[in-house]
Amino acid sequence: MVTLTSRVDIMVPRLTTALKGPLLDLEQRILTAQPSIEHWFRRQWLDHTPPFYSSVDLRNSGFKLAPVDTNLFPGGFNNLNPDFLPLCVLAMQAAVEKICPEARGVLLIPENHTRNQFYLQNVAQLVTILKQAGMRVRVGSLLPEITEPTTLTLTNGQSLTLEPLVRSGNRLGVADFDPCVILLNNDLSSGAPDILKNLEQTVLPPLAAGWHTRRKSQHFAAYHRVAAQFSELIGIDPWLIDPHFDVCSQINFHERIGEECLAAKVDDVLQKIRTKYTEYGVKNDPFVIVKADAGTYGMGIMTVKDGSEVRDLNRKQRNKMAVIKEGQPVSDVLIQEGVYTFENLNDAVAEPVVYMIDRYVVGGFYRVHTDRGVDENLNAPGSSFEPLAFDACCTLPNPDCAPDDMPNRFYAYGVVARLAMLAASFELEAVAE
Amino acid sequence: MVTLTSRVDIMVPRLTTALKGPLLDLEQRILTAQPSIEHWFRRQWLDHTPPFYSSVDLRNSGFKLAPVDTNLFPGGFNNLNPDFLPLCVLAMQAAVEKICPEARGVLLIPENHTRNQFYLQNVAQLVTILKQAGMRVRVGSLLPEITEPTTLTLTNGQSLTLEPLVRSGNRLGVADFDPCVILLNNDLSSGAPDILKNLEQTVLPPLAAGWHTRRKSQHFAAYHRVAAQFSELIGIDPWLIDPHFDVCSQINFHERIGEECLAAKVDDVLQKIRTKYTEYGVKNDPFVIVKADAGTYGMGIMTVKDGSEVRDLNRKQRNKMAVIKEGQPVSDVLIQEGVYTFENLNDAVAEPVVYMIDRYVVGGFYRVHTDRGVDENLNAPGSSFEPLAFDACCTLPNPDCAPDDMPNRFYAYGVVARLAMLAASFELEAVAE
Q1: Which of A49, B81, B241, B366 stands the most exposed, by the fewest C-beta atoms within 10 Å?
Q2: Which residues of B touch A10 (CB under 8 A)?
Q3: A429 vs chain B: nearest CA distance in angstroms?
Q4: What is the pTM of this model?
């Protein structure tokens, strides 16, 4: 038996904020209500289908704990604690069993990155999890330059073989492999390619979950409903877990169209935050995050503390905001209440990310940034971060510890992340209709 | 992140036998066939319901890996590696969800031991797992002397509160607690008490799974069918995983009735083993285990190498064989092929026990005995053993390691244990009809 004698020594970000009252109360209520919460989730899964997998970026300000992004094509499985691989495998077995018990073969389709070692390690880790869950797995690439099986040796010693896709009628596979399930780890930012359309096989997540159709505002509208129900269940102010937001459409940053709408809505959201900060005695400056309503990878993102700031963007800022990943133009913009992240590791800012397979929380890690402020987006392009795997899993709350001790803080993270995941399932139902 | 730099140093029993050929081949085939095996199990669970929980005692002789006992009311959850508690919690969530998603309250009914610290720690661990899975849990005792809530402080520092059962009409609970599910951790050796009969609530495992109705011979007959199918799937001789057995009924050890039948069947089973040993070049002496067909706890168990031995039992041996737990008389006797256990830790004999919740393997441990031989039952009353938790879980086979390296040996254990668990589900279906 492995005994860890000094778990206390393990690095865990510290919450450094003067104002912990509301969050401690939130964490205490989550802890006390655990049986009701788990029962409530079980009931939700009777009526709703969780996404195949997901990751949720959280922000913890000491007075508020909220999701700020929900990814339905999660990268970063390589950043999870290897000790919890068995959890991923068990959750994957349950997911596969539920969706397609007859499944034997899975075709995994990743993003078109062949040089991003971290991303490739994520793909290799997904292959491992699927294999350990007893599936046959091959990786099919959408890249035109992959014309034959290509084995990449990764810097961590793993290897990954990308193969060219082969479509026969309405079935997709790779050479000598006819899978039952197509698993996307590609967020389809520039639309679903024809080769993925009208397939006989089950495609997970569905094509409609791609960023070419998904809107953050729809996600957060669904989350708003979920958060309201949940807050009633455990008796809290929903604002403690739900960021305000609004949306501006038909923006054109290059041509400076829509700036007034944006500035007005920024001020409106800031005012709503200010009211809440006054109610709770929060001394920090309210801020909002302005970002593309569709899209990922933190491109096209700004921190704004006053509406006037979006009227005075210089050319460089406008260029940065105008396009997201794969050069897609931005026309719809989300204005989201900024949530300070007051978790710190040494002097670096840390943001928790929680991973789920089906309805199960399987782990998480902190994005630790040494060069970013407490009010900045931590998932921006080019911003490097150190992943710090959660030491413990998110399913072992301990009523004998303080509500903000790690097992209980992780449990609260897992609960809020699952609320965002439930919101995503509402979102997917809406697009499936 | 917790990094274990020297997993190699961890104590693991060594397989010390000259003849590993057949088992290496078995382990290799299990490893190679992993996707087919997992697919086959998934298909089985479409048609069959796994027991709520189970544990399976295995014996590993180097040339044969087989289950020798399947427990549907497993004790020993306290012996599992605490690092794998999250796995138990996740599997418990899946089990509860499937059986009764509306469940909030579970009443756990343990065995009537109040002084066996190890058993009480097992009950406390089950309470922990159920609570972490989000259930409200209370422990109701069948003991008449428990007339009010009684808190026991366990030697490991945990505490456990036993409460008197309260039956109102056809509902069972404890004071101010009306559970949805009654979870038995009591094997009902002396029959199902009236207070458990005709309940409105779901009782798990069902009363018919108790040792008052269950027969080992029915289990091993079901296992024989399962092993045959599985062996065809992966192309092995079923004998490598399936012990021969036979049964004698209407034995009376006190009155020396049935001795001839027993002696003849012992010799018959020994002859079958001898034929196989010759086929595989095994040099060891064949032996059989004679034990009560109903019952548990290893009472009424003998190692026999010749039919004449059961004709010449002295009074003490006959008394020992005549009764099992709770003084129940033995009339039906199982004659089971003995499987040598050639796993050794230092000089002690080690026998693996695998634990499952629903259809998921959640861990296991070795029973390590310093004072027992390789051909003796290791779960005998009064025999003390040291539990050695499996260091790794049973779901992470690694094709890059040798077939008998620990991850792969554990995977093979998990597979054979699940075969026995599947046999138990056939058994439970038969009694439910």
Answers
A1: A49
A2: 2
A3: 21
A4: 0.87
